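Predict the 3D structure for this chain.
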Amino acid sequence: MAFSSNQSDDAITDINVTPLVDVSLVLVIIFMAVAPFAVQSGIKVLQSKASAQVGKVSMSESIQVKLNAAGRITLNGAEVGLPDFPAAVAAALAASKDKFVIIKADDANRVGDVVELMDTAKQSGAAKMALMKN
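Done. Predicted structure below.
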């Protein structure tokens, strides 16, 4: 019995791309699943230009809240305690037509104190707010 072999000793020149495609598709699926978690959430802050607010709101019409380094709060020049601040800002907002609050703070103030004032002003009915450095 004679065997006829059609096998040659030539090298295989064909590349099997199936494993490459499988790995690529798995990586694409992993990146699509992980991508929504990589997005960080936060507060959107819009930086206005210097000429954007000229003539729209005068300083006398807006409500000015100052927080100094010692923690004292003044509302339109009058000193207000923290427990009385919500009622005072609500009364000032009721008299204001544009409901615009400007909060001024020192560098020494804690961020939490400033955010608490912003939150109280927003809950009292402030439509717009601005932060300024003292």
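The chain is about 35% helix and 15% strand.
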